[in-house]
Amino acid sequence: MSRLTALTERVRDAIPLTRHLDFSLLEWRSGELLLGAPLGPNVNDKGTFFAGSQAALLTLGGWALTTLEGEACVPQVDVVAAESALQYVAPLHADATLRVVASEEDLDRFARRLTRRGRARLAISATLLSPSGEVVARFNAQYLARDLSRPDGRID
């Protein structure tokens, strides 16, 4: 089973809301995660992608990237969102693609601190895109991760 499939199952088991979003983790490489979600289960009364679904998917995307990056350093991490900002740019009348990224500098700092201290913070930025690549929403957030195998991995 691939890491993305395993993480998708973990999320859907732990967070019931995510089952209704019908998201897919499409591709992960260091510092970048792509997700997809169809309009159908996320449509609102205006026929556009529901803002609440967008917020949930963007938050989930940041959590998933932080989890994948953390578990590339240590066996298992616990990740929480610490702060976020979301800007809706345009309505979306179609399926969505989400691109979540972390800078190489932030990833290096995150990996060092997580490995050394058992806890670390990761800044991410994300965009929700239309099928044509138009930016529909922008999201910036900070996530905290702790190494579950260490007793000192408290999130401060």
Task: Characterize the structure shown.
The protein is an alpha+beta fold and 156 residues long. The chain has one domain: Thiol Ester Dehydrase, Chain A, CATH 3.10.129.10. The protein has helices spanning 3-14, 16-21, 51-71, 104-117; strands at residues 24-29, 32-37, 77-88, 96-101, 119-129, 135-147. Strand 5 and strand 6 form a beta hairpin. The model has no long low-confidence stretch (mean pLDDT 95).
Sequence-ordered SSE layout with sheet pairings:
Elements: H1 3-14, H2 16-21, E1 24-29, E2 32-37, H3 51-71, E3 77-88, E4 96-101, H4 104-117, E5 119-129, E6 135-147
Antiparallel strand pairs: 1-2, 2-4, 3-6, 4-5, 5-6
Which CATH architecture?
Roll
**Ranges with pLDDT <50 over ≥5 residues?**
none
What is the overall number of helices?
Answer: 4
Shape type: globular
* Number of E-state strands: 6
**The CATH H-level homologous superfamily:** Hotdog Thioesterase
- Tell me, rounded to a whole number, the average pLDDT: 95
Kindly name the structural category. alpha+beta
What is the N-to-C order of secondary-structure elements (H for helix, E for strand)? HHEEHEEHEE
User: Distance between termini?
Assistant: 33 Å
The CATH topology assignment is: Thiol Ester Dehydrase, Chain A
Give the count of structural domains.
Answer: 1
Which CATH class applies here?
Alpha Beta
Question: What oligomeric state do these chains adopt?
Answer: single chain
Radius of gyration: 15 Å
Largest sheet: spatial strand order: 1-2-4-5-6-3
The main sheet comes to: 6 strands, antiparallel
Our estimate of the beta-strand percent is 25-35%
